[in-house]
Amino acid sequence: MALMAFLFLLIYNVLSAEQYHRDQAEVVMENINDFGFDLLKVFNQEERLGEENLFYSPASISLSIAMVSLGSRGNTADQIAKAFKCNAHEFEEIHLALKSLQEAVQESENDNLEMKIANGIWGHQELRETGEFKDSIMEFYNTSLAKVDFKEGPERARDEINNWVERTTARKVKNFLPSNAINRDTRLALINAVYFQGTWLYAFQPERSYQALFYTSSDLDNVIEVEMMSRKSKHNYFEDKEHDCQIIELPYTGNDISMFIALPGEINGLSRLENIITSKIFSMWHISLENTTVTLSIPKFKLNQQFELKEALNKLGITDLFEPGTADLSGISPVESLYVSHVMHKAYVDVHEQGTEAAAVTGILMQKRSIDPHPEVYANRPFLFIIYHKSSGAVLFIGRLKRPTVKEREHMNGVNDFGHQSIEL
């Protein structure tokens, strides 16, 4: 009897420990997702971006900043950790969660869904990096530091990095780093690429697409004509009356990645929704979904965007990282006085009847009346969309559609057919 009690207690303790670690992992991923939603609030307040379409990858940006954090120390490390709602000594949990995300993404691929996360890091040939940094970057992000001559051959180094990006993305991204992006003072370049191409679990029928009006603002004269995709079928759906929006899930094949659309009740309701969304609200939407018949109409669209994220990260409290003489990246090299000069992010999305193609790279996106008793989601006004990886709990992409177009529009010197994040030091 005593032996049975001991075994029961042992099993209970093991199960309790496993549950604790699962709960902790969920909290950490919520913090990472909140970092992405906090960026959304910053973008919403920027005059240049507030009234535009928007698309970006919180996962890509988080991965790049996390790679830099491996070499950050002192107040620089504290500021990065605070942006992820943790303390610097707890940041290893962020690294572990991002490592799990990269592993989970590989398991999500199938014949009709391609999902890739790749990390690359290039250092000047004379850079004396620490052994700890080299070991950690391999352990958590499965990459090693490649040596190039930034000082005497900046263009050759740029070509090498661009060729890697092109190979890694199956030629989806070409000439990622523009001319003069690398100069004689560059000492380190970190690049993360996230690529996603998926087909809907339930495809839209092209013959059911039609031309419709899309209201870009409450000024009813400010309308554009769009190609609207439509279908009536079973969907996971939730009407959030508290926040005045409709939520609908559109799964991709394999059912591990989904697009969530949040459609405000009012034409001008999107800005308010962006200002209040958090990981907890998004989780509430997720668990509140009910499977029901829904008539869904959404426009086809493509978005291309490029950002310099330095100002946005400053507003999240990450400031020392960009200041020469103040940034403490001595964990990368105790000899060089490194700081981050640029954090570039590019993102691309294409939504059509068959599915979605999306990518991002970071280097250091009026309820219509109906007599139908079933709910109707008629996206003829600005809305928020989120591409979510279920098994890891990670928000991969966040977008805002204010002015649909299927013709690719360029922002800031042009954008490739892929998103990128890069950090230069």
Task: Give a written overview of the molecule.
The protein is an alpha+beta fold and 425 residues long. It is built from ten helices and 16 strands. It has helices at 2-45, 47-50, 58-69, 74-83, 92-108, 131-141, 154-168, 270-276, 279-288, 310-315; strands spanning 54-56, 113-124, 145-148, 188-199, 210-215, 223-240, 245-251, 257-264, 290-299, 301-308, 342-351, 355-363, 376-378, 383-389, 394-401, 420-424. Strands 1, 5, 6, 7, 8, 9, 13, 14 and 15 form a nine-stranded mixed sheet that branches. β14 (383-389) and β15 (394-401) form a beta hairpin. α1 crosses α3 and α1 (2-45) crosses α5. The longest helix is centred in the first third of the chain and has 44 residues, at 2-45. The relative contact order is 0.20. Mean pLDDT is 82; it is low at 17-21, 365-372 and 407-425.
